[in-house]
Specification:
By secondary structure, the chain is an all-beta fold. The protein is about 0% helix and about 50% strand. The chain has a 4-stranded antiparallel beta sheet with strand order 1-20-19-18, with no helix packed on it. It has a 4-stranded antiparallel beta sheet with strand order 2-3-4-5, with no helix packed on it. A 4-stranded antiparallel beta sheet has the order 6-7-8-9, with no helix packed on it.
Length: about 240
């Protein structure tokens, strides 16, 4: 329901994104490691934690330094080969499962980084399907875009806004994304070109439970929606069906 239940808490410092494996309901959480610095714009280390279904604490898979800014936009997704993609500060890195996540390459980033073919301005949402096609919310151009592998230009799917954040697709190829200003999660049907509200987080006692920006979400196989609660460093599960 609208209030949700807490499914991950212990050991999380500043969770910024989550991926849910729909086959076994394991969660992969991107967590920003805070330091003693009071400068919120200072880059911090980040780590990726694996939370097995019903576990009480996570297992650290990736530690990386000097890239995580707590109040910036960052996202984590996995492909069907369990490679991990981390989008942070306008750069996408791919961490390889075959190397036990000890090796990574940069596959996309800012338009100023012209040496990368899949280059774009800072993304507020990232989704990769089984064909390795990337979907992003491009904050600079205020659009949802579709990037085929090895293409240098995207296909525009939908106009959004500068406050749109988070992006997932369901089995019907419907898009779900949030709006940080309105604190609402929308569903977009590309066939009918219709958009509707599926979750209004303003109903959570005037945001008492949620610090901004909370709108980074994922589905499990039952289409429960997992949403970040950054104020209390936890993950909340909502039933939207």
């Amino acid at each position: 329901g609208v209030h949700g239940i807490t499914v991950a808490f212990q050991g999380l410092i500043y969770p910024t994104s989550i991926f849910v494996n729909t086959k076994n309901e394991d969660m992969y959480i991107l967590d920003c490691v805070l330091t003693n610095s009071t400068n919120v714009a200072e880059p911090r280390n980040y780590r990726v934690q694996l939370w097995r279904k019903n576990s009480s604490i996570g297992q650290i898979l990736i530690n990386n330094s000097g890239l995580c800014v707590p109040n910036s936009y960052s996202h984590i997704v996995l492909d069907k080969q369990m490679n991990i993609y981390v989008e942070m500060n306008g750069e996408i890195r791919q961490w390889f499962s075959s190397k036990n996540y000890t090796y990574n390459i940069t596959i996309g980033g800012l338009e100023t980084l012209v040496k990368y073919s899949n280059s774009y301005m800072i993304s507020h949402g990232l989704y990769i399907d089984d064909n390795l096609t990337m979907y992003i919310i491009d904050q600079s151009h205020e659009t949802i875009e579709k990037w085929f592998p090895n293409f240098i230009l995207p296909i525009k799917i939908k106009t959004t806004s500068k406050t749109s954040s988070g992006l997932i697709l369901d089995c019907n190829q419907f898009f779900y994304y949030g709006d940080l200003l309105e604190n609402i999660i929308y569903q977009f049907n590309p066939i009918t070109n219709q958009t509707r509200i599926v979750l209004d987080l303003n109903l959570q006692q005037q945001l008492e439970q949620f610090g901004r920006p909370p709108l980074i979400m994922k589905f499990d196989k039952f289409y429960n929606m997992f949403v970040m609660d950054r104020r209390y460093s936890r993950i909340i599960k909502h039933s939207i069906l």
